[in-house]
Amino acid sequence: MSEVSKEQTVGTPAAAALGEPVPAQRSGTEDTFLSVRDLRIHFRTDDGLVKSVDGVSFDVKAGETLGIVGESGSGKSVTSLGVMGLHHAAPNARISGEVWLDGEELIGADPEHVRQLRGQKMAMIFQDPLSAMHPYYTVGAQIVEAYRVHNKVTRKVARARAIEMLDRVGIPEPGKRVDSYPHEFSGGMRQRAMIAMALVNNPQLLIADEPTTALDVTVQAQILDLIRDLQKEFGSAVIMITHDLGVVAEMADKLLVMYGGRCIERGTAEQVFYEPRHPYTWGLLGSMPRIDRDQTERLIPVKGSPPSLINVPDGCAFNPRCPYADIPKDNITRTTRPELTETGSGFGSGHFSACHMSQEERTRIWTEEIAPKL
Amino acid sequence: MAAYFIRRVFGAVLLLLVVSAVTFAIFFLVPRMAGQTMDQLAAQYVGKDANPDTVAAVKKNLGLDQPLYAQYWDFIRQIFVGADYKFGPDVQHCDAPCFGYSFKRHIEVWPEIVSRIPVTFSLAIGAAVIWLISGIATGVVSALKRGSFLDRFFMSVALAGVSLPIFFTGMLALGVLTVQWPIWSDGINYVPFTESPLDWAWNLLVPWCSLAFLYSALYARLTRAGMLETMSEDYIRTARAKGLKESRVVGKHGLRAALTPIVTIFGMDFGLLLGGAVITETVFSFQGMGKYAIKSVQDNDLPIVMGVTLTAAFFIVFCNLLVDLVYAAIDPRVRYS
Ligand SMILES: Nc1ncnc2c1ncn2[C@@H]1O[C@H](COP(=O)(O)OP(=O)(O)O)[C@@H](O)[C@H]1O
Ligand code: SF4
Ligand SMILES: [Mg+2]
């Protein structure tokens, strides 16, 4: 497909036409808060067109958590920044597809309107809270700023709100710490402060992009607990992005596995964890740390390096690394890209995967070869 | 913060002492090590045709017959308490701060320097205001409109600015504006601010712009590079994710961080200029410190060269101290380290 025709898909209900299954209504049922359809985000660079996100669709309901999993460079961050409308400023970005937030389409919307939604209806927390906070301003000042963009209140009121939020996310002595600078906080405290800043306007959608990757293991669990608690309290939709399946194992309702800018498997957490139907997902599960197993016994993690997003070859993007690439007939994995298709599942409908192997073959490999070793 | 402040001031004082010691060594120790006798050294202070009596007096006045540490001590002491220079029965008093006495011209060094300061300061301050505003503004626009026609235009002009020596641009401006199109038909002459602020500014305008052109170009390039770097920082993405207006993202979050290194460089550039803008002063025949220093070197009038050197060093150290303090005000991380 040429670049031009992709660009023409902006704002058109083209998802079905592109062979992407449409799992739910476009603007969603009452409780579908975010609906992404065939999102494509490409960057023009000196080396060529980088197809960072190439046709990704998903839905998130209020109160639900979607986990987006994939190794580094698979397009997770670009996807989430795309939902937030943060690529529009980049002069080299080409964006197409649809992002429906609470019944409103954002890709074609007025950027000024999207700006007003940012931080208010949808908020985001980032991987490294030290670099994500401005080193020159106090934590309080940064939260106050986030609150006052969207609320016409005095500095004093906003400050009280900032202290309240710091207290809510478990920062001791919030009245004092509000005047501290980010570098005076520990890593975990900083991420708590980031969460306070993101939630200060009660957003209905929270995107957490690898929120625990930069933190110690013990702190990781605390931050995840905090996000879960806050989600329960506020009933917001959460997108939890991670390269580590372990992070979302306990909290995700739905999972989307990304590989090379595309979704290669998507379903409920049960479906993806207990009946994964893609060799890459098997590899991810195999590389999950488990305390009850000896390190050497485990499956070898996915060998090889992530695919180039420039000049993406024909066929399945995973084929250079896939141990089963020779199973599908006629060398089809190397010539034709597998489409996402619904997979028969013991956990109900809504389970999609993209692989040329037959369902029976994959079920057999999973139950006989992979699952017993995990 | 207070501890940081005290540490910095202490460091600055120490640095000045080192600078004074080095300057002293260059003027008194090096000639001695090079094999000059004290008589030869003293003779340099009065000129070749001096009579032996004067040379002897100079030798005594400079303390050249004393051990080095005593000489250095006197040298420092007279800055604070002044000194008396004796020539037979005549006594020439040099008031504190006494930065020496020119035996060739029979004048105290310090008042000479002081009389040149207004010219040099006027030049430096005015030019700095112009180059900070124009350099930073063009740098920010260039960074935000990276790759655009405007960016390329600004950066081409900036490249010309950093490549053209100031005696070229200054001479060109002088020639064009006083002869070709004589807007400054009476030439360009320094008028003290106290005499007429308007004439002061009018006459300084061309020197200011000549000097500022070079620095604007440097600062535009620095600002552009700094802005490109900070605008790709994570905290800028956070600021945008909060829903801030782009103008606020750029001004409050981007520019503030991008300016930090510029403050450092500005401190050094400005401190250096306070010691005299040698070429600009020469091109426009302004009697500033820079021109004075050059003339004293040509005349081999060592006490004046030494005085000017120390004064210039003081300004540089002082400006760097200010930079450290401004730095701490801008970047809270500095205060705690
Ligand atoms: N602004 C950009 N310009 C060009 N390439 C980009 C840009 N942003 C991201 N990319 C590329 O897109 C790919 C996906 O990046 P990202 O979404 O950050 O991956 P991750 O899954 O690790 O979050 C990477 O190869 C990255 O180099
Ligand atoms: S399509 Fe082929 S290469 Fe791709 S995952 Fe399936 S078996 Fe492996
Ligand atoms: Mg990422």
Automatic annotation (TrEMBL), chain B:
Membrane topology reported for the UniProt record: Multi-pass membrane protein
Keywords: Cell membrane, Membrane, Transmembrane, Transmembrane helix, Transport
Keyword Transport: yes
Location within or outside the cell: Cell membrane
Lineage top rank: taxon: Bacteria
SUPFAM superfamilies per UniProt: MetI-like
Principal location listed in the UniProt entry: membrane
Pfam families named among the record's database cross-references: BPD_transp_1 (PF00528), BPD_transp_1_N (PF19300)
Domain (ABC transmembrane type-1): residue spans on this chain: 117-327
Transmembrane segments: 9-30, 119-141, 153-180, 200-222, 262-284, 304-330
Family per record: Belongs to the binding-protein-dependent transport system permease family.
Name assigned to this protein: ABC transporter permease
Species of the source: Streptomyces lateritius
